[in-house]
From TrEMBL:
It comes from Streptomyces lancefieldiae. It is an enzyme of class 2 (transferase). This is Glycosyltransferase family 2 protein. Signal peptide: none annotated. Its EC number is 2.4.-.-. Keywords: Glycosyltransferase, Transferase. Pfam families: Glycos_transf_2 (PF00535). One of its GO terms (molecular function) is glycosyltransferase activity. Gene3D superfamilies: Spore Coat Polysaccharide Biosynthesis Protein SpsA, Chain A (3.90.550.10). InterPro entries: Glyco_trans_2-like (IPR001173), Glycosyltransf_2 (IPR050834), Nucleotide-diphossugar_trans (IPR029044). It comes from the Bacteria. Transmembrane segments: none annotated. Residues 7-173 form the Glycosyltransferase 2-like domain.
Amino acid sequence: MSGPDISVVICVYTEDRWEDILAAVSSVRAQSHPARETLLVVDHNEALRDRLLKEYKERQDVRVLANAGPRGLSAGRNTGIAASRGEVIAFLDDDAVAERDWLRHFAEGYTDPRVMAVGGRTMPIWASGRRPDWFPEEFDWVVGCTYRGLPPGRVRVRNVLGGNASFRREAFDAAGGFATGIGRDGDKRPLGCEETELCIRLSRARPDAVLLIDDRAVIHHRVPEAREHFGYFRTRAYAEGLSKALVARSVGADKGLESERRYATRVLPAGVARGLRDAALARPGGAGRAGAIVAGVLTAAGGYVVGSVRARRGGATFSVTPLAPFEGDAHG
């Protein structure tokens, strides 16, 4: 096997996704560029952890560990990073499956020693079987997927997207781990942006660092029925605004909103125009998509304003601590 050793970290928190978790692990084990190991990090759920330990007790390439930090995705990822052995650490969502060449495309990106992170393309699997007519592709980030407006091919970016991403180990040595207090915590308010903050911090710590997205590194991400509704769309957009305010407060608005300015001034107006054109041509969902884009922007902006006020008052914070060596128990 050529290229770097890659450890894959999958953070899990609920038995409701049992079949999805098994499918995610199976997709890693089927890679054309074999993973060195798969680490299942269980977020404060002893029943799920025990069940996974039994499921994989015969598998030396799958390790099951408990989140060693506070509840939430960021601390779970940090636990996986500290326990992993690979030169590169890749992250896969627990409700996603990777295509066979996912890790191979990641590995190819690291032939350049300046490359510190490589992300991929995440495609939605809609529970209803098809995209809702009103749901704009420009807002696929709402359901954790690659959205219209990202450049195609293998390109440099400000940040990778956390559910389908990889980092060179030395990136964490330089910048520390994921910030806690900013990302998701199970089924609570769907905050995000922890990978954005980490990537900006990494670029500051290593100004020569190159971060890439390779759209050939594809995963397929399940979108549950509850997330196909406008209520979730609005909640997620508001939470994104809150998260972006924290990031901007930490790293400055210039860097924290650098990519968002292009998105808001070029990608979204084009999306509205496309929706209105489709409506004029009596195509399904055109007016709904245009309206959803406008509503999404306004809702996210509202969250950003509220988040900025809270951050200035000290009511919303997050923290970054150096990654300590892993001392917990693990199978495998």
